[in-house]
Design a protein that fits this description.
Helix content: 55-70%
Number of helices: 3
Oligomer: single chain
Largest sheet: none
Shape: rod-shaped
Length: 105
């Protein structure tokens, strides 16, 4: 008998054990796919929530209820209100005179 024919006829794993390995492989594959789908679903929920928050913020800005923030992160109205309060709102040592400026000679 040809040795190649003998190798082709004999299975690598006996048939009585092969069914368990195939079933285990399918279960592992299904679990991995299920975990992947769960991760993608949570990412999608987070993206939808962020998108809805951005849309509502844009609608409020378009209606004029919220002023656009400046580079420091405060709204323009808040910066104007802070500037209108004058030096009384400044912390000690914030002026040139108290920091050894032109008047401290």
């Amino acid at each position: 008998m040809n040795p190649l024919a003998l190798l082709a006829a004999a299975p690598a794993v006996p048939y009585d054990k092969a069914g368990r390995y195939v079933a285990a492989a399918f279960i592992v594959f299904f679990a991995i796919v299920l975990i992947y789908v769960g991760i993608m679903a949570t990412k999608l929920q987070r993206l939808e929530r962020d998108l809805s928050e951005l849309n509502s913020e844009l609608e409020r800005r378009e209606r004029g209820h919220v002023e656009a923030p400046d580079a420091a992160g405060t709204s323009v109205g808040a910066a104007t209100a802070a500037a209108a309060t004058g030096p009384a709102a400044q912390p000690p040592g914030a002026t040139l005179a108290s920091a050894g400026g032109a008047d401290a000679s």
